[in-house]
Amino acid sequence: MNIKVCGITQYKQLQQLDGLNIDFAGLIFHPGSPRNVDGKINPTQLKDSDFDLKITGVFLDAEMIDILTAIDDYGLDVVQLHGNETPEMCEDLSEEVEVIKVFSLGDDEADIDAMIAPYDAVCDYYLFDTGGYISPLGRGEGAFGGTGQQFDWAILSKAKIEKPFFLSGGIGVEDAARVKTFKHLDFFGVDVNSRFEKEPGVKDMSKVLQFKMALK
Asked: Which domains, ranges and CATH numbers included, belong to the chain?
């Protein structure tokens, strides 16, 4: 079971996650998020690091040049795209790094396979998050999770998907047993954020460890 911890704002916490053998760590590059990493982690220090976990840059409708700059400055391994990014943009980025395309879902019977089809050939992973949430900060923070809300995972059961995907949206330590019972051939991992925080951008590592052990 792969674990991605998103919304990291401290280099020390990246070191701690790497020590816990967490698989992915997300850095949010969006001015509207209280977890925005800009100015909080030294890009040169991060780029020169030798982490086993994959450093993932999280973006919302950012300009291509800004994403490429962040990839180069921070040495990103993966980009995670939350907005209306086109398949063409994903394809261009996939020449540089791995790409996670995010799809926000409600509890309705959306045609998930039709939704993701244009991205099948140009992304490495999908991430399904909770949709329909607008925070006081506007669309940006809602789109980046941290909402504490979950969608009905059962709506994924009828979708073929056929690409590794993450579950996201309001997942906490108490959901470990439920995660273990979720079945899909392409289920790859979970993405966690706000329910593992002491405050926005500062994770509670004891909860991360507890969750990791509970998933075994």
From this structure: 2-214 (3.20.20.70)
Describe the crossing of helices 11-19 and 205-214 by its angle, rounded to 10 degrees.
Answer: 30
Distances (CA, A) of 144 to 19, 50, 133, 157, 161: 25, 27, 10, 24, 22
Q: Which residue matches tokens 């079945």?
A: 183
Residues 129 and 102: beta-carbon distance below 8 Å: yes
Per residue in 80-118, pLDDT (tens digit) is: 999 999 999 999 999 999 999 999 987 666 799 999 999
* Alpha carbon distance 61, 50 (integer Å): 29
For helices 87-94 and 64-74, angle between their N-to-C axes, nearest 10 degrees: 20
pTM: 0.92
DSSP the chain: -EEEEE----HHHHHHHHHTT-SEEEEE--TTSTTB-TTTS-HHHHHT---SSEEEEEESS--HHHHHHHHHHHT-SEEEE-S---HHHHHHHHTTSEEEEEEEE-SS---HHHHHGGGTTT-SEEEEEE-S--BTTBHHHHHT--S-----GGGGTT----S-EEEESS--GGGHHHHHH---TTEEEEEE-GGGEEETTEE-HHHHHHHHHHT-
